[in-house]
Structure formats: structure tokens, C-alpha cells
Amino acid sequence: MSATGIGAPVRRKEDLRFITGKGQYTDDVVRPGETRAVFVRSPHARARIKSIDVSAAMSMPGVIAVLTGAELANDKIGNLICGWMIHSKDGSPMKMAPHPALATGTVNHVGDAVAVVVAETKGQARDAADQVKVDYEPLPAVADPAKAQEHGAQQIHEVAPNNTIYQWHLGDAKATDAAFASAKHVTRLDIVNNRLVPNAIEPRAALAEYDAGADHLTLWNTSQNPHVARLVIAAFVGMAPEHKLRVIAPDVGGGFGSKIFIYPEEVICLWAARKVGRPVKWTAERSESFLTDAHGRDHVTHAELALDGEGKILALRVKTIANLGAYMSTFSSSIPTYLYGTLLSGQYNIPQIYCEVDAVYTNTVPVDAYRGAGRPEATFVVERLVEVAAREMGIDPPELRKRNFIKSFPHQTPVIMNYDAGDYQASLRKAMELADVKGFGRRKREAARHGKLRGIGYSTYIEACGIAPSQAVGSLGAGVGLWESAEVRVNPTGTVEVLTGSHAHGQGHETTFAQLVSERLGIPFENVSIVHGDTDKVQFGMGTYGSRSGAVGMSAIVKALDKIEAKAKKVAAHMMEAAENDIEFKDGKFTVAGTDKSAAWGDVALNAYIAHKFSGQELEPGLKETSFYDPTNFTFPAGCHICEVEVDADTGNTEIVNWTAVDDFGTVINPMIVEGQVHGGIAQGVGQALLEGAVYDKDGQLVSGSFMDYSMPRAHNLPSFTIGLTETKSPSNPLGIKGCGEAGAIAAPAAVINAITDAIGSEQVLMPATASTVWAALERANVARQAAE
Amino acid sequence: MAMTMTGEVQLAAPRETVWQKLNDPDVLKACIPGCEELNKTSDTEFQAVATTKIGPVKARFKGRVHLTDLDPPNGYKISGEGDGGVAGFAKGGATVALTDKDGGTLLTYNVEARIGGKLAQLGQRLVNGAAKKIADDFFQKFAAETAK
Amino acid sequence: MPSVSMTVNGKAVSGNVEERTLLVQFLREHLRLTGTHVGCDTSQCGACVVHVDGKSVKSCTLLALALEGANVLTIEGLAEPNGPLHPMQEAFRQNHGLQCGYCTPGMIMSAIDIVRRKGHELDERTIREELDGNICRCTGYHNIVKSIAAGAKAMAQGGAPRQAAE
């Protein structure tokens, strides 16, 4: 392994600009003549807009325009869409309600935009927004997904009776019921997967500029997938033809899913920039982010696990209500279906699974993918059920897991997925060693001496990453393909630019992708640049989410590098007057087999461009190759996380005292970066388990709408983590990569709750397990125990 | 975001006096904290402008106040709804009952209020305390007015 | 509009600003020092931390006009142009103490202030507690804690920080 090649913990290229304050995030970009946009938003969860009076706002200092939904409709700007078609079990298509970028007629959640003010400065725009008079007729709202389908609940959209978007199912209901009928033991759980706010620390932003001469629009925005944004804004919203719209996602300060989607604000900035003839910038304030960034999770589930007398799982039955909020966000429909139901087999050989999911509208912010997206919800269901079943049956939880692990591959689950590689026993074994499970009893007794209840919790999770191949996801309803593109440009001096359709917003692609190229071409790491995030530079690409950039994005680079090598060999053959088949390429040097003739990488690159050694009829000059890579299957990262907590018996306060993660991500390009991804994922999973929850009151007001009220992990909420790796290579891509970005967020919530319930001896702990929640569970357990005595 | 509050206040003035003051816009304007305008538009309706600060959100509310369930001199229901622009909205009502007690009048009130928008998002933890303070301020001033 | 003068990263600067202009707006919009970031409206996240007269402050809570004559140090002023990085900057890079980079300037400015207040030998608990005012959503803090411990030690070994007050 070289110091900068595959497997080396190379320090990141991108860091220098970030640690010196020279990053360029969207709000840092300034265009000549730039104006600022501020949105007028509904304070009501649901209301009819009786009138909007903009006259006072228009007369305010610095105001250039005040625009409303009526003008948007006049200009024939289309609605936002959800790009993944889900059919209900009766065959009917999902009920997608219109989602205009500025509301007309009714507003459907607090924060729904009704008008935009464009002014010279942000302060002026804000002052004027306060003068826009919207006369609302408040209407009853529904915020609780469990109540959305009830008879008499307020109907939010005409197209969706009972607020039901679809009633989807997966698996064999009859066979599952039959397995339950034969079971010796059934474990039942009611689960709420709490609603989360992604809260990337960089708020969303958009800056749009119109070039009237060229009739061309440019959008800088906080996007994880600028090409998809351009496609949707061009083809569905109808803002401009695709070739007349450039989308640039510069440095992006975290996404976690929330910056995948196409939002009203970027549409409005583009539209307004063309209308006022000047660049228009909008940057969210944090309280605005809470009301407009797509939220995550929000499931209400009843789940049942059937086992035989020896703890062998026979079947799993799951019924989930998924809250999609007031409108269907870009990929919302796929999250509680094909990214959830298909993962319900976990790491286990479960003969029968039946899953039903009802997706509902409520008067809340739209819900879509958030780190893990469906897979944390599935893991939480499976890992809670398995843990509780083990406790109920008096079997050690890791032992019950072992009895049910899938041990041979490929393995076809009853819920679509075909697991191609893994070793679940290896990761469990290694995690138990690293966590010193043997010493847990001693640690528990020691904790008890200090008034602390110590518990241990396991989570043996699986995820499906690098969603593919495109043909398969198309058959499941996806509106896009899920391949990735790469273009490798070798310059005449031998330096290399790689243009990738992946997009980095913290993942370190500029480093890991360069490691791959440096190793493969045998050229210095410093001589490789990674270019991403600009539709004018990079050919079409699908972006970064779902832990896909290594498995799919890097594989595309490998395919392009294959073509580069083949072409370079032809050039070298002409240079050295040898047969192409005799050319060997290793460590950046071309040699003729069986001779001492050689040509350096830089000489071959130069010769490819000067084209003095071959004729254009024999070989095209230049050295640039493109690839579109479509994997053969999903990848299946898996692992085991073990959490130890200490609960204060008097207050219910939970402290995480040990965390061990052993993950199988296949090939690891940069272990330093991979470990960092695991750390961050665990932190967000711990956040979900202990701290985070978006709370709506019954009127649909978001009452946890700021960093004062929505608690996220701070440094003192977390321990340092013990990280280990096992490796089985993914057979579905040339590098054997599986993906690591979401593992922590998927594994962690079940590990934490399993540890807390172990500590307090009660299974009735909802997330977030705040001190008061745990204390109440302890009290209930005490009362029940006293009653039993 | 709903909030309820009940309370009572003993006033020295006789019930008839208290009732008159309760229906006098000048008195109400003087007593409602932050009230800038209170203009009678009919026997039972007022237009009001008031500035209120709840936690980090300061808002100037414009809205209507109306009186219902009038039962002179025993009580009424006073309701209002205010639009605070980008700060959100507030609406609510108070049932006010007057009874003779200890040579004066006992005023009991039962308030229900709702807030929405930024007020609810940022101010909900503080709204009960803020509402209590508004009520306390109001009745302290009102007691002084009835003693005049 | 009233005017304000202060020293930012060793240079005298002045500008005419609206009364309500916050220090962070003055830095970002008037001086185009965009390394200082805004992550929340409520002084919770710490992305905007800078040093004023040698102490860390959240620049979203100060009015620019209140800082007449003050000495302000931002992330851009930590290292001399073309000079070596500040030891804390280098420690963040060596220990992978950042991912998306958005919270990083505030983290580094807070970290240097922790060293000023707590010394160069920082244990994990102290670092975690002292970081209460800074939120990172990417790293899970594990590597930030390592970075700060290493940076604190490095600062003792001669790599003295450039102080705003000098």
C-alpha cells in the first residue's frame, strides 16, 4: 500500500480551505447587483388564503418586487413533484397532491410559503415581508399521523381520501399468518420512530442569476445532486429548458438527505431573478429551516415476531403508518416502502415476512430521506423485536441472533433483496471482544455501587446501499436511473482531472477519489483533482445519498480509468514502436514486455496530445474517457454495534459510557474517513434515541422549532467510540466497496434503546429517551414490580 | 399551541362600577399591556393594536376584539384575534364573571389562548409565563382603574 | 448610517452600517470575510465564533456598532498569509476533525479559547464540556476532541497563537 493509495489514511485535500475559512458555500457567493429574497410564510397549519395585500410592502424602502402564487401560476411555473411512483395493494397509483412553490388557495403547513419579497438588502426584504397582509381563514388541521386516517379527520387534499397517499404491502400475508399460527412464541411491539429534523449546520440557500442576452439561468444552491435538481426544475417545474439552466452546488455544509430534494425556494429564486432582471439570493434562517427542510422518519408501527420453541424466527409481520407531511417531497414515497420493507429481514433467515405501509398526509413539513432513510426504521423494528424476544424467551440476545443469522450467500429474503456477501457472525464476535462483553457483569455491579443502572444493547444491522441496477429500481417505480458517471481528463502534462457525478458535502471525495486515481495510474496524489457539483462541467450525474458514492461513483471512475489505460497503451505502443498487446502498464510506467523499453506516464500523456507518433486515421488524439456505470446489485453493508449505558436511577438521565462498532463495508479506501463517517452516523443515531424529536402540537404548530428547543448531540452527550472493521467484498462493483455513510445512524437507535431497556428492566421506552421518559418508565416498572410482590 | 389560565381578583368597587369599566374602551386600553389603540367599532367590537414580547419574539398585533355572552352586570366573554405579521398570530378569549363579595366585587376569569407561527416555534416554553404576566399586569391596572 | 471602526485580523477597518447590523454580518457582508458562518438564529451552534479582544464570542450576538475600537480575530487571521497554519488548524487537519467544514472555523476559534482558559493539557471530559457552545452535525465530535487535545499540546510547543489583542 502506498502512502496515498487505496487503504491509506490520507489527510484530506479539502481541509486546507475549510480550516482557513476559504470554503465557498452558497451564501459566500456574491454576484454583481445581487438582491435578497425573504419569504412570507403561513403561521397556520391549515388555512384558506382569502386575500394577499402587497401594496404596503411594495412601498417599503429598497423593495424591488413582491410576488405571490397567483403570478407564479400566471407564468405557468409548474408544481414540485415526487419522482418515485408507488402503487397501493389494490393497484391504484399513489395520490400526489399539487405542490406549488408558492401556495394559492390553501396553505397546508406552518411555514408554507405564500409570497416572496425581493429587496436591495436582507433587512429591507425582512421589513417588507412583515408588511405583506395575508388574510387567512384558519381551518382545522391534523398533525398526528396515527389520527390522519380516522373518520372525521380533516381532509387535507381533495385527491387523497382519508389523507391516505397509498396503502402498500410487501410479502406473503397468508404464508406469514400460517407461520404465526404455528409459532410457540410471539413477541409484539408498538413502535414510534420519532420525527427528526436533519439540521445540517449550513442552512439551505439559493442564488439565481439570469443572463437575458443568452436567455440562460444559473443557480447556486445547497444541493447533494445538482443534475437531478436541474432535471426536475427544467422538465417538471418548466422553469427553463435543461440546456438553458446551469446548477452549481459549491461547498455544501452537510446534507444528510435534506439537500437531495428540490424545494420551493430555489424555484422561486430562479423565477424571481428572471422577473426582476437581477440576481436573487435566499439563505434560510434556522427557524425557517425547521419549517421547510424535509424532516425524517415519523413512523407509527405495530410489529410482531413469530418464533419456535428454540428461538428460531418463523415470521415477521409489520404494519406501519408513515407520515409524509403536507406535500410529497421529491423521493418521499420510496422511503417507507422500498427502502424500509425490503430491509425487514435484517441479518436473519426469516422464512416469511409481511409488511403493510400506509402513507398519510398531515399538516406538517414534508418528510423525506434523512440519513439512512427507511433503513434505520427497519433496523429499529427488527432489532427491538429480536432483543425483546430473546429477553422474553430467556435466551441471551446475541445467542438468539446467532441462531438466526444468515450464514450462506447469496441469500434471497422474502422481501426482494438478494444479499450477496457478508459474515454476520464475524462482526458480532469481533464487536463482543472489543466491547469486553465478558466484563459487563463486573461493570454493572460497579455501576450499581454508584446508584447507576448499567445496561448493554446490541444492534446487528444490515443496510442496502448503492441502490441499483437502474432497470430494477425502475421496475419498483423510480423515476430516475441510479447509475453514476465519471469523466477522466488526462492533461498533456500528465496531471488528471476527474469529473464525477457524485457530490461531496463532507464525505471527502476530493481525497478518496484521488487516492483511487493515484493508485491506479501510479501518479502523485497531488496531481489529481476531483471536479464535482457543476452541471456545466460534469456530464449528467446522480449525486450523493444512500452511501452510494464509493460503490457507484468510484466504480464509474474505475471504468473510465480502464478506458484511459487502454487508450494510453495504444499511444505508448506507437511511441515505442511495439505491438499494443505487448504494452504493460504498472506504477505509472509503460513497458514493452520482454524488453527494457519504457515510457513514463507524462510522456504518454504528452504524446497523446501532440500526436506526432501516430496518424489521426490510426488513433484519435487526446486522452479523455467517460463512463456511465450501473452496478449489478445493491451493496449490503452490515455490522454490529454494542452500546453500554448508565441510567441514573433517581433522575432517569442516561449516559452512554461505551460504544463499540464493528462494520463490514467491503473494501475501505481511506480508513480515517470511513471511521469519521461511522462516528457521525452514530452521533445522529444517538441523537434520535436520546435527544431529538420534532414535536407538533395538535393544531399543527411546530413547538420544537429552534436549536433552543430541538436538542441535538453536543460533545458531552457522546463518548469516544471504539471502531473495528471486518471485510467481505461486495461482488456487485469492481472495487468491492459497500458504503459507510449511514451505518451509524442505522445501527445506533436500536443499540441505545436495547441498552436502556436492559438497564431499567422495562421495554416501554419511547424515543427520544429523555431523562423524564426513562424516569417515567422506571417508575412504571417499580409500580408493576411492587404490585407483583 | 393552546394555553389556559384561570384566576380571580378582588376589587373594592361595586359590581355596577366594575361592569361599566369593563365596557369602557379607554379603561381597557389603559389596562391592556402594550395596547396602543383600542377603537370601538360597534357596541361589542373594537379594533386593537398591541405590542407584546414573548421570549425572543416581539410582535405588534393588529386585530379585532369582540364581546359576546353579555350579561350585565354579571359578566361577558371577551375574545380577540391578532395578526402579528411574521411573528405569527394569537387568538383567545376570556370568560369574565362578576359576583358581590366582601362589600366589593370578585372578578373571576377563565382564559383560553392559542398562538401560532414564530411565536409558537420560538416562544412556546415562555408563553404561559408571559400570559400570566400579561393577566397580572392587566388586573393590577384594572383594580387601580376601578378604585378611581 | 452610523460608522464603526475596529481592527480585524490586524488591519484597521471601518464601515457605515445600519444600527441593527450584527458583527457576523459586518464581517461577512461588509468585509467579505466569509469564513465566519451562521448556523442558527439563537446563539446555539457556535459556527460564528470569533475572538474579540482575545476572548471568544458568538459574532451573531454582538452589534457591530458596539465594537468601536475592538480588536477582532477571525479564522482568516489565524495564520499569516503564506505562513504556516496555526497549530490548532493543523491539528484539525491531522486528526480529521472536520467533514463538511461549516462548523469548523467556529470550532477552531473556540478550541483556541479553551486552551487560553484551560491550558495545554486538556483531558477528554474538559474538552467535551467546554465545547458545549459549538454544534457539529458531521463528526460525532470524536475527532474534534482528538484534534483539540493535540492542538493544545502543539500550541505549548512554540506554535503560539496569534492573539487579537496584540
Topology:
The complex is a heterotrimer of chains A (789), B (148) and C (166).
Chain A: H1 15-19, E1 35-41, E2 47-53, H2 55-58, E3 63-68, H3 69-74, E4 106-107, E5 113-119, H4 122-129, E6 133-138, H5 145-148, E7 164-171, H6 173-181, E8 185-193, E9 205-211, E10 216-221, H7 226-235, E11 245-248, H8 264-276, E12 280-283, H9 286-292, E13 299-307, E14 313-325, E15 352-361, H10 375-393, H11 397-404, E16 411-412, E17 418-419, H12 424-434, H13 440-449, E18 452-462, H14 470-475, E19 484-490, E20 496-500, H15 509-521, E21 528-531, H16 549-575, E22 583-586, E23 589-592, E24 598-600, H17 601-610, E25 624-629, E26 638-648, E27 654-664, H18 671-691, E28 722-726, H19 743-760, H20 771-788
Helix pairs in contact in A: 10-11, 10-19, 15-16, 16-17, 18-19
Chain B: E1 2-11, H1 15-22, H2 25-31, E2 35-42, E3 45-54, E4 57-71, E5 75-83, E6 89-101, E7 104-116, H3 118-147
Antiparallel strand pairs in B: 1-7, 2-3, 3-4, 4-5, 5-6, 6-7
Helix pairs in contact in B: 2-3
Chain C: E1 3-8, E2 11-16, H1 23-30, E3 49-52, E4 55-58, E5 71-73, H2 87-94, H3 104-118, H4 124-130, H5 142-156
Parallel strand pairs in C: 1-5
Antiparallel strand pairs in C: 1-2, 3-4, 3-5
Helix pairs in contact in C: 2-5, 3-5
Return the string of H and E elements of chain C.
EEHEEEHHHH
Mean pLDDT of chain C: 94
Q: What is the straight-line distance between the termini of chain A?
A: 64 Å
Fill in the CATH topology of the largest domain in chain A: Aldehyde Oxidoreductase, domain 4
What general outline of chain C do the C-alpha atoms trace? globular
Uncertain runs of chain C with pLDDT below 50, 5 residues or more? 160-166
Q: Main β-sheet of chain A, in a few words?
A: 7 strands, mixed
- Strand content range of chain A: 15-25%
- Number of helical segments with 4 or more residues of chain C: 5
The CATH architecture of the largest domain in chain C can be given as Roll
Counting DSSP E segments of at least 2 residues, the number of strands of chain C comes to 5
Q: End-to-end span of chain C in angstroms? A: 30 Å
